[in-house]
């Protein structure tokens, strides 16, 4: 086939398909990463539920790149999906992608991470505040209501701020527990360094709350290397397998607040199916996390 | 040195033949991809989707125009992904002074960052690979300073119109790609500046003996690459309504791939803007087409790598046959 023929065949197709209207294609999901166990479980749960409900589901991975997320959503729009489920790469920047979808009349559901400056049909995410309260209550219990506590936080992320606020609220029931330090440790390496610094500055610390699994696991390592393994108790948040195993095997890790990505993924698909069917869905669907302690 | 067909002297009919000879391999790859995607998904070949592809490929295409100049000289610029991010941030912060000042400041920032690459490469005689690996890190660090790593939101309607608006029925972002393509193409194929670039990239000694100020040329070209990256950064920040500190991460590799796919030789001296544009389109068509076919993300990475290898092989083989 000559190039000219191929080109003219292409042009004919353009002309023919230009007028074709969009038709129902199910759910398009744009997830921010596929390199975190939480998102792997979330995606698997969505696929399983979509299969159970018999609704077509396509998943794109933005790989933490907002521009790729926008392109993925644009491609969903052209394909003519009915509903877009999105976990924003950035809770502010993803508004561009969401606005584009909504301008085409496509309903948008956010999962795990809310969008800061736009309205969506529904948001499904962990109830971080309640999870934080549960962490505070657990801390009060394991410390017998007294002692000095340190917090590892991540202040620019709204969901983490809610966890820390909840943790402090949970501790209010224990007036003899004092929060002596609160510092930022985003990666595991940073969390290790700040834990060591906090334990150096306040050797009488008996409890550490890490905003995530990584922060908590790093705090446990820091306590061990400071020779404080009999004195310090650590509580984490996320509850992925590595942290749950640490709770089972490591006496320092007394518990972890466990998020439920499976339930989140299932609820997201169920909500999308309801939206396609024209039902009204709640604007906020918090998933209350559980408490995982030693067996 | 491979000769490049001169489109100025060729008559109309010869010109088309010359174009087919030069770009046949890579055009064939692009057409093949389009045929495959069209056969597998009816929505691929729609006006809406083709506009979509052009918009999505704009950032990489413009960065690749700048990259083509640098590679033609036999150099490399790995810092353009970081320059894209800095440009977006400068724009977002400078919008406080108004749209036009922000635009000018952003372009000036891109020119400055490019000029720094050029001066370090030309005057300190450092390999551009090392210089731009270093400045890649420096610029990426700088972009995070003003907001401590957080994105800066953009609300200026004129700035946002660049990425979202249309002019004569075509998105503005596509017009910008077309204008910059024509600008770079003419500068490269019809001016002394372009001829000097080809000559210097093909044979540096000969260029020196013929009186070309190679150092100045190098600084000018790195500056041009910086300005192109800044324009790409403006488009990206406009499309994203925000300046992200991790914007443009690893886009330099897509830009290099686009230039090389388009027949630009990493040894310098050989390459055209037409080729680079086709190369960028291949990357855009692949990304979009595989999305349309719902190819899982990790397979997309594998297929993209394989297609780049096959396309370059087709092109090299076609050129060998001609020789």
TrEMBL record, chain A:
<dbReference type="Pfam" id="PF13407">
    <property type="entry name" value="Peripla_BP_4"/>
</dbReference>
<keyword id="KW-0732">Signal</keyword>
<protein>
    <submittedName>
        <fullName>Monosaccharide ABC transporter substrate-binding protein (CUT2 family)</fullName>
    </submittedName>
</protein>
<dbReference type="InterPro" id="IPR025997">
    <property type="entry name" value="SBP_2_dom"/>
</dbReference>
<comment type="similarity">
    <text>Belongs to the bacterial solute-binding protein 2 family.</text>
</comment>
<dbReference type="InterPro" id="IPR028082">
    <property type="entry name" value="Peripla_BP_I"/>
</dbReference>
<dbReference type="GO" id="GO:0030313">
    <property type="term" value="C:cell envelope"/>
</dbReference>
<feature type="signal peptide">
    <location>
        <begin position="1"/>
        <end position="24"/>
    </location>
</feature>
<dbReference type="GO" id="GO:0030246">
    <property type="term" value="F:carbohydrate binding"/>
</dbReference>
<feature type="domain" description="Periplasmic binding protein">
    <location>
        <begin position="28"/>
        <end position="279"/>
    </location>
</feature>
TrEMBL record, chain B:
<dbReference type="Pfam" id="PF02653">
    <property type="entry name" value="BPD_transp_2"/>
</dbReference>
<dbReference type="GO" id="GO:0005886">
    <property type="term" value="C:plasma membrane"/>
</dbReference>
<feature type="transmembrane region" description="Helical">
    <location>
        <begin position="159"/>
        <end position="187"/>
    </location>
</feature>
<feature type="transmembrane region" description="Helical">
    <location>
        <begin position="53"/>
        <end position="74"/>
    </location>
</feature>
<keyword id="KW-0472">Membrane</keyword>
<keyword id="KW-1133">Transmembrane helix</keyword>
<dbReference type="GO" id="GO:0022857">
    <property type="term" value="F:transmembrane transporter activity"/>
</dbReference>
<feature type="transmembrane region" description="Helical">
    <location>
        <begin position="256"/>
        <end position="285"/>
    </location>
</feature>
<keyword id="KW-0812">Transmembrane</keyword>
<feature type="transmembrane region" description="Helical">
    <location>
        <begin position="297"/>
        <end position="314"/>
    </location>
</feature>
<dbReference type="InterPro" id="IPR001851">
    <property type="entry name" value="ABC_transp_permease"/>
</dbReference>
<feature type="transmembrane region" description="Helical">
    <location>
        <begin position="80"/>
        <end position="108"/>
    </location>
</feature>
<keyword id="KW-1003">Cell membrane</keyword>
<feature type="transmembrane region" description="Helical">
    <location>
        <begin position="20"/>
        <end position="41"/>
    </location>
</feature>
<protein>
    <submittedName>
        <fullName>Monosaccharide ABC transporter membrane protein (CUT2 family)</fullName>
    </submittedName>
</protein>
<feature type="transmembrane region" description="Helical">
    <location>
        <begin position="120"/>
        <end position="139"/>
    </location>
</feature>
<feature type="transmembrane region" description="Helical">
    <location>
        <begin position="219"/>
        <end position="236"/>
    </location>
</feature>
């Amino acid at each position: 086939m000559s190039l000219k023929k191929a080109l003219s065949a292409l042009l004919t197709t353009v002309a023919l398909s230009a007028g074709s209207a969009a038709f129902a294609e199910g759910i398009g999901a744009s997830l921010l990463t596929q390199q975190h166990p939480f998102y792997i479980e979330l995606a698997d749960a969505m696929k399983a539920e979509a299969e159970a409900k018999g609704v077509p589901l396509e998943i794109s991975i933005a790989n933490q790149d907002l521009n790729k997320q926008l392109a993925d959503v644009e491609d969903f729009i052209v394909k003519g999906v009915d509903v877009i489920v999105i976990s924003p790469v950035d809770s502010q920047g993803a508004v561009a992608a969401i606005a584009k979808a909504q301008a085409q009349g496509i309903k948008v559901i956010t999962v795990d991470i809310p969008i800061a400056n736009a309205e969506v049909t529904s948001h499904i995410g962990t109830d971080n505040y309640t999870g934080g309260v549960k962490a505070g209550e657990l801390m009060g219990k394991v410390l017998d209501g007294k002692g000095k506590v340190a917090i590892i936080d991540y202040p620019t992320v709204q969901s983490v701020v809610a966890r820390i606020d909840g943790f402090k609220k949970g501790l209010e029931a224990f007036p003899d527990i004092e929060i002596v330090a609160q510092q930022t440790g985003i990666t595991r390496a940073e969390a290790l360094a700040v834990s060591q610094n906090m334990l150096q500055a306040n050797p009488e610390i008996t409890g550490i709350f890490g905003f995530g699994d990584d922060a908590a696991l790093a705090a446990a390592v820091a306590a061990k290397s400071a020779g404080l393994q009999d004195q310090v108790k650590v509580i984490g948040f996320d509850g992925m397998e590595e942290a749950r195993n640490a709770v089972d095997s490591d006496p320092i890790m007394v518990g972890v607040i466990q998020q439920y990505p499976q339930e989140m993924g299932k609820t997201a698909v169920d909500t999308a199916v309801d939206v396609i069917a024209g039902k009204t869905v709640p604007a906020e669907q918090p998933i209350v996390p559980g408490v995982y302690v030693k067996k | 040195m491979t000769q490049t067909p001169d489109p100025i002297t060729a008559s109309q009919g010869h010109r088309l033949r010359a174009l087919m000879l030069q770009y046949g391999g890579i055009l064939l790859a692009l057409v093949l991809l389009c045929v495959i995607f069209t056969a597998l998904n009816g929505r691929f070949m729609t006006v809406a989707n083709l506009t979509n592809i052009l918009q999505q490929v704009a950032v990489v295409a413009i960065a690749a125009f700048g990259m083509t100049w640098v590679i033609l000289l036999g150099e490399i610029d790995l810092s353009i992904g970081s320059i894209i991010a800095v440009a977006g941030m400068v724009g977002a912060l400078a919008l406080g002074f108004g749209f036009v000042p922000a635009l000018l400041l952003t372009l000036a920032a891109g020119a400055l960052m490019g000029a720094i690459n050029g001066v370090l490469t030309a005057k300190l005689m450092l390999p551009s690979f090392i210089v731009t690996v270093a400045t890649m890190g420096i610029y990426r660090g700088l972009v995070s300073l003003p907001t401590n790593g957080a994105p800066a939101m953009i609300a200026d309607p004129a700035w946002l119109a660049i990425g979202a608006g249309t002019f004569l029925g075509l998105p503005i972002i596509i017009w910008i790609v077309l204008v910059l393509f024509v600008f770079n193409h003419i500068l490269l194929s019809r001016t002394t500046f372009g001829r000097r670039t080809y000559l210097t990239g093909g044979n540096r000694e000969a260029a020196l003996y013929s009186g070309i100020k190679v150092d100045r040329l190098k600084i000018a070209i790195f500056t041009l690459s910086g300005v192109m990256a800044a324009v790409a950064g403006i488009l990206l920040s406009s499309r994203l309504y925000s300046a992200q500190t991790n914007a443009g991460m690893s886009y330099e590799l897509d830009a290099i791939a686009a230039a090389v796919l388009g027949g630009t030789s990493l040894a310098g001296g050989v390459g055209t803007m037409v080729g680079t544009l086709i190369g960028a389109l291949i990357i855009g068509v692949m990304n979009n087409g595989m999305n349309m076919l719902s190819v899982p993300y990790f397979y997309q990475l594998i297929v993209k790598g394989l297609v780049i290898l096959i396309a370059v092989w087709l092109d090299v083989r076609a050129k060998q046959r001609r020789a």
